[in-house]
């Protein structure tokens, strides 16, 4: 009995409320927990490490598909360590794909900032034609204008917005950054710096909210978040390795005592 852990022991070790331990058990994130004759849960070191995996994997934010995370935790609890490890690497792949997109968007931005023309449109376009040209909606273009990401000139006679190669090139930068996960606030912060003539350190501007900014989403520090998520994905893999080793050790012990 001395080798067993109580619910409160697990909660204290992981740093959660005892109800969280019970909740994770009910979700199938822990393997079957035996009970004492009096009905108390009898946790083992394996349960502790399963709880550690669940807590590590389920800490917000999630990059990629959350279901992959849930499935790998449940596979580990069911003893299917091979599938748990496979899903952990699938999660790592998803995070790395997101990080690759984010880094490629930065390269696109830096090319533009260095003066590379990103559009060769010869004539001015109206908002509808520009939306079609870029594959975005008219509402998106209006929102980017209202958000301060771009100041579109207007025809002096009709007062309609007119988009030239310069504006369309800037819109391409905005679009790829948004598609790659950067927030409107992060892009606005970077473009304000660019518009002052400061074309260096745009990467840092995208990833560093000002002291007077309220960070509402992880996308305001997207590059940092992706780096942290890749490190956490590696931690998940290491934790599954701990569970594999515990399972192997338990099998050896069982074989020796039979």
From TrEMBL:
Domain annotation HTH merR-type: ranges: 4-57, 124-193
PROSITE patterns per UniProt: HTH_MERR_1, HTH_MERR_2
The entry's keywords: Coiled coil, DNA-binding, Transcription, Transcription regulation
Residue stretches in coiled coil: 219-246
GO MF entry, a single one: DNA-binding transcription factor activity
Name of the featured protein: MerR family transcriptional regulator
């Amino acid at each position: 009995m001395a080798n067993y852990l109580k619910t409160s022991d697990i909660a204290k070790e992981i740093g959660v409320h005892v109800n969280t331990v019970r909740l994770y058990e009910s979700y199938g994130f822990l393997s079957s927990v035996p009970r004492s004759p009096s009905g108390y849960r009898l946790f083992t070191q394996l349960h502790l490490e399963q709880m550690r995996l669940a807590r590590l994997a389920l800490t917000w934010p999630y990059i990629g598909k959350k279901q992959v995370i849930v499935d790998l935790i449940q596979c580990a609890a069911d003893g299917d360590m091979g599938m748990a490890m496979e899903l952990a690497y699938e999660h790592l792949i998803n995070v790395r794909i997101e990080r690759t997109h984010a880094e490629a968007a930065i390269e696109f931005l830096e090319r533009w900032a260095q003066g590379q023309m990103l559009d060769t449109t010869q004539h001015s376009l109206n908002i509808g034609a520009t939306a079609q040209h870029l594959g975005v909606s008219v509402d998106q273009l209006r929102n980017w204008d209202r958000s301060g990401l771009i100041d579109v000139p207007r025809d002096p006679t009709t007062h309609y917005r007119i988009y030239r190669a310069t504006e369309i090139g800037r819109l391409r930068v905005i679009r790829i950054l948004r598609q790659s996960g950067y927030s409107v606030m992060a892009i606005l912060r970077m473009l304000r710096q660019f518009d002052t003539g400061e074309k260096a350190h745009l990467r840092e501007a995208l990833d560093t909210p000002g002291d007077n900014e309220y960070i509402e989403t992880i996308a305001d520090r997207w590059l940092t978040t992706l780096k942290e998520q890749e490190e956490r994905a590696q931690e998940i893999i290491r934790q599954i390795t701990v569970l594999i080793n515990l399972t192997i050790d338990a099998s050896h012990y069982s074989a020796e005592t039979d």
